[in-house]
Write a structure and sequence with these properties.
Layout lengths: L8 H27 L10 H50 L7 H25 L11 H9 L1 H4 L3 H5 L5 H8 L4 H18 L5 H26 L4 H31 L4 H5 L2 H25 L12 H15 L18
Helix pairs in contact: 1-10, 1-12, 2-3, 2-9, 2-10, 2-12, 2-13, 3-8, 3-13, 8-9, 10-12
Length: about 350
């Protein structure tokens, strides 16, 4: 997630340059066909194209709103993970063998807290296990992902080994959905503590309800991850935008045609091409950018700069819960990399 207040200028130019080059060359080509090849039938009234642009803008706006809703829902879900995790930590500290400060009791609380931290990070890693960005033939995207690989912390064994014993980590990693199995183990541990009469039944029920909430939050994340943004909305938005951009120079001919028709010299003929190309490039950049914003926001659990910052959320949860256990050797706050918080 971009955390800088202003969008970096170099990114603006990097994304805008290909659009500006394409639209400018296309506008020059259309201008040349009209002014020098004598294809005057290419001159199209500007009003129908402007009306088409209005329709495309409404459609792209609808798509962007829907895409943003997916991102915001993902962020709200992880906000729920934070709140439920704090509740879990509070319950573990106060409900599991309350008042017992023996080493055995402390180890039990430690195991319940750290297994939960393993679940949080396992869920994060599972959501990022596959990424549509890796299938895109965009070298700059791949380079950025490789440059930030260490910051993104996507190594399964390295990320979870600090929270689980090696045997338990190997056991849960063998399942198709390790995060689900970690919650199963939490429930089994609570059941065992209840059988040993070291926890009140009502407290065990309350903690199982929190586990139920974790399952619900995990399911919501998986629903977003496994249900792509409706392609009819995404693809037709892209198609309509491209059609409008291609037609724009033909409509601009109608605006600048009078200057071309009354030109007396070659220099007079060339003069109108500058404002026409500039107008076409500007309109194309705006529409392509609006369409691209929705495209980049539709999948909130990718390894991208528009991702929900799950690394930072997991680190916040880890800090809060480990402090509840009285631990002091804590990791530092997650820091942005190049203005991006992962």
């Amino acid at each position: 997630m971009l955390v800088q207040r202003r969008f970096p200028v170099h990114l603006v130019f990097k994304f805008a340059l290909p659009i500006l080059i394409f639209s400018s060359l296309w506008a020059v080509f259309v201008f040349g066909l009209y002014a020098y090849a004598g294809l005057h039938f290419l001159r199209t009234p500007f009003l129908p194209i402007a009306t088409l642009g209005t329709a495309v803008a409404f459609y792209v706006g609808f798509k962007n709103n829907a895409a943003y809703e997916r991102f915001w829902e993902g962020r709200k879900i992880w906000g729920g993970v934070v709140n439920a995790s704090r509740t879990w930590g509070n319950y573990v500290v106060n409900y599991v063998r309350p008042g017992d400060q023996s080493e055995e009791a402390q180890q039990l609380r430690h195991a319940l807290i750290h297994r939960h931290l393993a679940w949080v990070n396992a869920l994060r890693l599972q959501l990022r296990k596959t990424s549509r960005l890796h299938n895109k033939p965009v070298p700059t995207t791949r380079r950025r992902l490789e440059n930030h690989a260490e910051v993104m912390r996507n190594d399964w064994d390295k990320e979870l080994s600090g929270f689980l014993p090696a045997e338990e980590l190997a056991q849960v990693s063998a399942f198709a959905n390790p995060a689900t199995q970690l919650l199963v183990k939490q429930g089994q541990t609570l059941a065992e503590v209840l059988r040993e009469e070291k926890m009140d039944l009502f407290h065990q029920i309350a903690m199982m309800e929190v586990i139920q909430e974790f399952y619900a939050l995990q399911g919501k994340c998986e629903r977003i991850k496994n249900t792509p943004f409706p392609r009819q909305y995404a693809e037709y938005s892209r198609i309509f935008t491209r059609v409008f951009v291609v037609l724009t120079p033909f409509g601009l001919l109608d605006v600048f045609a009078k200057q071309i028709d009354i030109a007396q010299t070659a220099l007079d003929t060339i003069a109108p091409v500058v404002p026409m190309v500039a107008a076409s490039a500007l309109v194309s950049w705006i529409f392509f950018t609006m369409e691209g914003i929705g495209d980049s926001s539709e999948d909130p659990f990718e390894r991208s700069m528009n991702d929900v910052p799950m690394n930072a959320v997991c680190r916040t949860i880890e800090t809060d819960l480990r402090q509840m256990l009285g631990e002091t050797d804590l990791p530092g706050k997650e820091q942005p990399a190049d203005g991006i918080l992962y």
